[in-house]
Amino acid sequence: MNDVPNILGEMNDRSREVFRRVVEGYLADGMPVGSRTLTRDFSEKVSAATIRNVMQDLEYLGLLDSPHVSAGRIPTQQGLRMFVDGLLEIGNPDETDREKIDATFGSNEQDVSGLLDRVGSALSGVTHGASLVLTPKREAPIKHIEFVSLSPERALVVLVFADGHVENRLFTPPPGQTPSSMREAANFLNALIEGKTLSELQTSIQTQITSRRQEIDSLAQALVQSGLAVWEGEGDQIERLIVRGRSNLLTEDGESEDLERIRRLFDDLERKRDIAEFLELTEGGEGVRIFIGSENKLFSLSGSSLVVSPYMNADRKIIGAVGVIGPTRLNYGRIVPIVNYTAQLVGKLISDRS
Q1: CA-to-CA distance for 111 and 115, rounded, in angstroms?
Q2: Alpha-helical segments (H) within the chain
Q3: For the chain, how long is the longest CA-to-CA vector?
Q4: Is 59 helix (H, G, I), strand (E, B) or coil?
Q5: Which domains does the chain have, with CATH numbers?
Q6: I want to staple 93 with a disulfide (CB 3.0 to 4.6 A). Which of 14, 75, 247, 337 is the partner?
Q7: What pLDDT, on the 0 to 100 scale, is given for residue 274?
Q8: Residue 128 burial (CB < 10 Å; 0-12/13-18/19+)?
Q9: Where is each Heat-inducible transcription repressor HrcA C-terminal domain found (predicted)?
Q10: Number of neighbours of residue 16 by Cβ within 10 angstroms
Q11: How far is the C-alpha of 100 from the C-alpha of 119, rounded, in Å?
């Protein structure tokens, strides 16, 4: 791949302006931009032939592409990346967008999950894309754990936190469980809790099971591991990915291949086993990150972009993230400030309520 920063630095003013105008035109209407269109409002008096030569040079560099013969140019994924990194001007969200997001936070309710659900809907509505909100894990110390058998195939784990919060989880226990083995598993875990959070308990549980194997039989051991897998894996409330605005990406005039691409995207989201991978996308530091096309490792497809920003608690620890999915021709200059503003508000909300 070409060295994008060096390419931008070596481009002359004319090439840079041609490139910028092609990208901005494509982001505005999704259509290829031709040389005649550029000559009408170019900053200097140049011929269409001169513009075509510049566009050919940019295509040779891998920054532009010709979807059809004589149909103008569109930016490549590499071109979009260079535009976003080097030429995109980011301001603040406009007043209308801020007011719509602010209205979501007007409630004084204490149900953070419910509020984050509304944040996802508001973000989708404002950006006309699909929104993603990763809710924070509950990190309060655990006070008590109990297993309850509901049937041979279903069991319930009851989690009582030190702050008084109670959560119930359904899961499929290993075969052969008895009321006795469930009590034994609960006693084993309760002896280890000692004010630990779920993540801290998960860290120490394997070592404890190995060193205290004589104190817990194989059935109880399997039950403990199954329960912990439920809590730390796809837990509904502990770590939940909220997806809103699917219909925004399914436009009536969409090509059949575009509809199939969107279907695969949401299939990926709905069956994702490790939701934390979404949060890992933000670990490069504070602020908004932009993933264009196949740069986005969360999905199995290219052709979509993800704008994502983490939010933090009062200790400046990343505990969740918000993002927007859309086509690669997103209005990045508008979407990036909205995502950043929303993430900051969510972080402040979580900090104030904790």
Answers
A1: 6
A2: 4-10, 13-29, 35-40, 48-60, 77-86, 95-104, 112-127, 179-193, 198-211, 218-232, 256-271, 276-280, 332-353
A3: 87
A4: helix
A5: 4-86 (1.10.10.10), 95-136+240-353 (3.30.450.40), 142-232 (3.30.390)
A6: 337
A7: 44
A8: middle
A9: 115-336
A10: 17
A11: 10
Distance from the Cα of residue 148 to its chain's centroid: 35
Q: Tell me, what amino acid is at 2?
A: N
The answer to whether the beta carbons of residues 223 and 154 sit under 8 Å apart is: no
What strand order describes the sheet that includes 130-134? 241-244, 130-134, 318-327, 304-312, 289-292
11's tokens = 């481009």
Which three-class secondary structure state does DSSP give residue 251?
coil
Separation in Å, CA 118 to CA 115, 202, 223: 5, 31, 36
Q: Which residue has the tokens 């532009």?
A: 64
Distance CA 106, CA 112 (A): 13
- The Cα 20–Cα 12 span in angstroms is 12
Residue type, 100: K
Task: Please state the pTM of the whole predicted model.
Answer: 0.69
Sign of CA dihedral 170, 174, 175, 181: negative
Alpha-carbon distance 43 to 14, whole Å? Answer: 9
Residue type, 193: I
pLDDT digits (tens, 9 = 90+) for 31-64: 899 888 888 878 778 888 899 999 999 999 999 9
Q: Are strands 318-327 and 241-244 parallel, antiparallel or unpaired?
A: unpaired
How do residues 248-291 score in pLDDT, each as one tens digit?
A: 776 545 556 666 766 666 666 655 544 556 656 666 556 888 88
Cβ atoms of 38 and 63 within 8 Å: the answer is: no
Strand partners, 155: 149, 171
